[in-house]
Amino acid sequence: MQKLTFRMAAVAAVGTIFLAAAPAAATDPEAVEITYLQPFTNVAEIPAGSDLSSIRLEGIKAVKVATRRTSITDQRYCEAVFPEPGGSMYCPYIQDGSPMPAYRVTYSYSGPAVGSDEYGSTLFTFSVNLRPEDLDITALQTSSHKINRVAAAEVLKLTTDRGLVQREVIDEASSVLCDGNYIDGLWSHTDRNCEDKVTYKTVATLSDYITVRVDSAAGLAKQSSAPATIASR
What we know:
With 233 residues, this protein is mainly beta. It is built from three helices and 13 strands, in the order βββββαββαββββββα.
């Protein structure tokens, strides 16, 4: 296997580094992208219309979460003359690494049924990953090592928020929408001399999702004890 020397090519976004391989032979191009993940997220999104009173702790499990993702793209393979239908699972080749311990906290809730679900189930789950130092798991376990939900409710605090999002909608006051009807499946104007003129405007509307935030008592205490940061002018 040819030994590759990497050079920094570009930084596309915070936490993502792109590396371009510089092999001796120009006929063997490879591109390597390294993304530093943020697995310790204490927020999840559930559909608007979900029953917030139905949110229930299901379990807490010790897991390993990846903190880095490496993506390797072999241009010769990916740009083959006869590419595989639908692409290839190896283009690019992706591998997660640098695992760190975490506690995965899983909740269940009742929400709107998904149209693609033939059974029409309304029971769903969501999970968040917490740092081990932010959660004393032994304080939440019973003598049989099961999670004490009453104790967990004292340690894990849930807050919800349905924020506003910016959307583009038709500005009906500034638009001209011609009358018409469908003829043989095609939309035809009643007045052939009328021309549609559609303009848009940006409005703030409620999000289609509710953000659920899960904070541990230890995590909140750590945040409150952190020194305040004064922004420089």
